[in-house]
Protein: C-type cytochrome
Amino acid sequence: MKKRIKLNIPLCAIILSLSGCQSQDQNQSVVTSPTHEHKHEQAQSKPGDRKGHVMDEVVPRDVIPKAPILNLEEALASFEIHPDFELETIAHDPLIFDPLVIQYDAAGRIWALEMTTYMPNTQADGEMKHESQIIVLTDTDKDGKMDDRQVIIGNILLPRALAFIQGGILWADHTKLYFSKVTEQNGKFKLEKTEVVDPTYAKGGNIEHKTNSLLFNLDNWYYNAKSAKRYRPYPLDAELPKDAKEIYRNEHWKMALASTEYRGQWGLTKDDYGRLYFNDNWTPIKTTSFLPNVANRNPKHKFPPEILQQALGTNTIYPIRVTPGINRGYQEGNYREGYKLKYHTAACGPVIYRGNQFPEKYYGIGLVQEPAANLIKATKITEQNGVVSGQDLFNEQEILASTDERFRPVNAYNSPDGTITIVDFYHGILQHRTFLTSYLAEQIKMRDLERSKHIGRLYRLKYKNAPLPKVDYLNDLSATELVPFLTHNNGWHRDMAQQLLVMKQDKSAIAELKKLSLNTTNPLAQIKALWTLEGLGIVDFELIKQVSTSANSKVKRSLYRLVELLPTNGQIKTWVQTQVATVNSETAPILSLAAGTHQVWPALSSLINQFGINDFTFAALASHENDYLQNQAEHISAQAKAKITAVANYVKANDNKLALTTAQRESVNRGKALYNGEAACFGCHGANGEGNTMIPPLNNSEWVVGSEKRLAAILLHGFSGPIEVNGKTFTSPMTMPGLAQNPAMTDEHLADISSYIRHAWDNNAKPVKAKTFKKLRAATQTQSKPYTVETIKNIK
Structure:
């Protein structure tokens, strides 16, 4: 039997996902939840009051299992795990509850963020209370399980990021980034002070589209998901890079802020070579295949989404539980046989396995959490010529899945013992209130998912047929004692050793680091040693030359990025030119960057002639196209010259914008505020309207700057199916719903947003008036389905 449910189609991922994107938060300035589900149908604050479209319950009620709160033994019994692995509990309530983010410190203790106020019920009553905290868990009896809890910082509002730094910790709440000075004595910690580092760290957006992560990367910068910012502490007397500015200082260090490529939604991880891996809620793992801070160099050239957001593997999933508890569970296309979710809808918390407890065949796999389907997906990641790709690790099976609807994995981490630590938020309600459809509200009521205790679990995922390795901790080691750990076979040890060495700023380790960087038998250690030296302020050109004589491709890619940091001189230019003869398809794009930085134009020409012109060429030119052409036009092909000339002649649309009246300007500004704030349209379409591999761009889109009536019709009644934008077809399994039934979205609001996207970026179309929406709303009131490419033709 199918029950009819009334659903209010809301203020969704506002504009023109055309084939689909997330809905956005209207009025919450809170945190990015890791429990982000792919949402279109936003609802009003009171699910029981919603009116509008009528949707079916696809899943028969008699096949839906109950969802009681399970004790630890019952929860462990609910898992189906790949035969090679097993699961153990290392911490659970009341020792830890509502865990969101963890970090292992150098002594193996777990620092954790507890988000204790997230969605206690469908009304989110009390969510904005300052009741979350940062805690430390310790294994005092050394049995592999945590048994002691200490609250370090209490009374926090919805925390979202945590990292270690010299003198204490960096952490973020729903808006700001803080430094807390923490001291230790006899195994206990004392909070000395807390200061604001960046007051706008996670400003704006909504609960599912806010900055998070704080990942310390190979290049000694902290990176974030859902952000174009990066941070780095420098010694107080250090000179900052030209592209960075100081935003804070204390007695230990000063903080630099710089831009980077915008990436990700919830969670961030890295591989051995400093490549960052991220996701959005329907695409489990994405990457760029190269160290960051390349694609943002040239304002006249944008890297395409397929390079900036390489999707690895598939987004198919295989739950072992019937899964009606999703926001659009009334759509039959979401389910495979047995009423189980087909595709990711809440992918988050990725990790690249870099441990020493799993066998070699599993090294480098990607694990992604899927809390909406109560599982963790594994992706096999491979590489060819420096470019990574992925495929499902197992055939129609997940590495781990549960029949417990309250199992909500939100993050995972490499651990000191070489295993993976899984963070289980263990919560009934996954979907945030602002996006909650009446369909899902009914599902929550049906299984009493509002009923919530403060529960939380940390699990150890380990290989079944291998013992846990003996763990050496690094907390009491000197700088020179830390250097050998850069060669450790566990990625956690290598990363922690690098970070500790950089934090200590102890120059006594320099000689050993240089020696290690010349050890060609261990390329990973060479790379770690070279970047650790950079973290100590040492980029030695003579050392780079020595290493380059026998380096493999991975090491050379780091060498070319490091040499960019040096001031230009004749020796460097000569060396860059000589490297052209040694490159291959993996190293050539990165050498292009070094050639551009030091303006070794003949080297860049040789690379263009040998490997063709590409996105890295334009990043290397970085607005020096005319200088390059004046020197090298006769040394490259006519086709390459034409492409470079086109970029050189690029003129920002802002230089030729339509003149706006005061009223139009105000409308555009209101629309911009909606796009980047309450509506958070940037979450799907990007801050610059660039879209991604699945969602069409708004910038330079004929659907945006063309017929204003057609755009208005899509906003009012939605869009479904494939669509072509600028000659490229975008296909998404998601449907953009219409906003006509949402009383919170007035004609004025729609007009403001439309006016903004038609005027922003490179777009230059005239604003839209509210009366356009008013007239079209009346004329199309019988439209009951989203438009398609064919049916939208009726709108003239």
Remarks:
- The radius of gyration is 26 Å.
